[in-house]
Amino acid sequence: MNFFSICSCRVSRWRYSSRVTFRSKGVACLAALLVLAGMAILTAQEGVISRQEALAAVYQDATVIRDRVILTTEQMGAVAALARVGMQGKIYPRYIARKDGVVVGRAYIDTHTAKTERQSLLVSLDSAGRVIRVDVTVFFEPAQYMAPQDFLRQYDGQVLHDEMVIRRGIRPVAGASFTGRAVNNAVRRVLALDQILQGETAAAP
Q1: Whether residue 8 has pLDDT greater than 50
Q2: Residue 180's Cα: distance from chain center in Å?
Q3: If you average pLDDT over residues 135-150, what whole number do you get?
Q4: How confident is the model at residue 205 (pLDDT cuts 50, 70, 90)?
Q5: In angstroms, rounded to a whole number, what is the distance separating the alpha carbons of residues 11 and 20?
């Protein structure tokens, strides 16, 4: 092997090594970015509760069956009119809790935009349509804007009424007025939705 062959071989190896090093660093950077993104999601989700945990706490010793409500255009209009808030969609996951075959409660997921990001609430009702508890199950806004427990507990035992309005019958969320409005609108929607659905069931032959 002559001098030029040796030099060519060394240059080729150096170029290959540089490509491998560059690619390795690129993979490492991508992995780091993914980790940071995952940490951001976890931070945004801090303080939420899973649907299963919330349902188990609210409907203890009950059998809970999940179904899905798909509203018609007429039903959406009726719910919006009764709730006096805008609709955020026509599909609502619903959970029906039974003990010894008797319905003891219904829970609904309301997913909406809090300010610019998604929030989901599980609004659990008793068999009469009264709020048992409101839980945050998804929250992608910054964690400091999440509704605190003392705000959410204001809805315990409530039915839909004219005073269920922020700064009237409901205290606002300090420093996150958009969160309070979004939660209040969601609770009003769910209570109206349940009333409409139960009224249709009662009227059915």
Answers
A1: no
A2: 15
A3: 95
A4: confident
A5: 14
Task: Record the pTM.
Answer: 0.78
Q: Is the pLDDT of residue 2 over 60?
A: no
SS (H, E, C) the chain: CCHHHHHHHHHHHHHHHHHHHHHHHHHHHHHHHHHHHHHHHHHHCCCCCCHHHHHHHHCCCCEEEEEEEECCHHHHHHHHHHHCCCCCCCEEEEEEEEECCEEEEEEEEEEEECCCCEEEEEEEEECCCCEEEEEEEEECCCHHHCCCHHHHHHHCCCCCCCCCCECCCECCCCCCHHHHHHHHHHHHHHHHHHHHHHHHHHHCC
In one-letter notation, the amino acid at residue 18 is S
